[in-house]
Amino acid sequence: MLEESRRTFSLNTLYEVVHVWQARLVSAPAVDVFTVSGRDETGFVDMAELRGRRRR
Known about the structure:
- By secondary structure, this protein is mostly helical.
- It is 70% helix and 0% strand.
- It is elongated and about 50 Å long.
């Protein structure tokens, strides 16, 4: 049953929503302030990389 769920369940809609919100955040002024502040953002995962892992 778990294997069947893995084959038939898709996270594509979730990835699309996250992608839209990422695009919105990129254009938000607060993001520029955060980026300029020098805070470490190395712990974040690129969604394209995450999608690639899921498809394997």
